[in-house]
Design brief:
Elements: E1 21-25, H1 32-39, E2 51-52, E3 55-56, H2 62-72, E4 73-77, H3 88-99, H4 103-116, H5 132-144, E5 150-154, H6 162-179, E6 182-187, H7 190-193, E7 198-203, E8 206-212
Parallel strand pairs: 1-6, 1-7, 4-5, 5-6
Antiparallel strand pairs: 2-3, 7-8
Helix pairs in contact: 3-4, 3-5, 4-5, 5-6
């Protein structure tokens, strides 16, 4: 930062397994988003190493990093990041277009994803015609349509009221259990924290606590 240095993460040593539903919890500036960005191959650690699905983040070229994100990783943002000029169907279809999946298979995958989130009646709608909760469900469908191994969600309920937050979280919890997709949340929202099965608390870039929650 300018002429100074800022250590976003310090001495982090974590492993995530298949099918986890984990919250990375902490106040603003604790390092949550940086950790998520490294796991998502958007950032490279300045020291140490990070492995995602068996690949070293530091050793990935920009092209191989993009290919990994395109095929294996899903992203859900607090601001939805939908294409305003495209329909719900087209927004969810976009990741599949990048993969070059043929038309008939692509259409069925989009319809499946929209059925998961309960939006098959909104296929032709555009984002401006949707509520906040519906927009976030479209974002979930877009993240899940390719059935990624890992979904990274950065404050996914920040712009939603309590009822919509719980609906969104129940949808993600259902997909996690049915598809065994690993979900990692960066959050300080108590509603999200109440759903996760592992809580990793960050403070000043360090892991202050790592708890497994028994929800059986």
């Amino acid at each position: 930062m300018g002429s100074g240095k800022f250590t976003a993460l310090n001495g982090i040593d974590l492993t995530f397994g298949k099918g986890e539903f984990t919250g990375i919890i902490g106040p603003s500036g604790s390092g949550k988003t940086t950790l998520l960005n490294i796991i998502g191959t958007l950032d490279v650690p300045s020291e140490g190493s990070a492995l995602i699905l068996g690949q070293s983040v530091a050793n990935l070229t920009p092209a191989s990093s993009a290919a990994l994100r395109k095929s294996k990783l899903g992203f859900i943002f607090q601001s939805y990041n939908l294409f305003q000029v495209h329909t719900v169907f087209e927004n969810v279809e976009f990741p599949l277009l990048l993969q070059g999946i043929e038309t008939a298979k692509r259409r069925q995958m989009v319809l499946d994803a929209l059925e998961w989130v309960g939006l098959t009646d909104k296929i032709k709608s555009r984002p401006a015609q949707l509520s906040g909760g519906e927009s976030q469900r479209v974002a979930i469908a877009r993240a899940m349509v390719k059935r990624p191994a890992v979904v990274l969600a950065d404050e996914p309920t920040a712009n939603l009221d309590a009822a919509n937050s719980h609906n969104i979280l129940q949808t993600m919890e259902k997909l996690n259990r049915e598809l065994q997709t690993t979900f990692l949340f960066a959050t300080h929202d108590e509603k999200v924290i109440s759903y996760v099965r592992r809580k990793i608390f960050l403070f000043d870039g360090k892991v202050a606590r790592d708890e497994i929650i028994d929800k059986n």
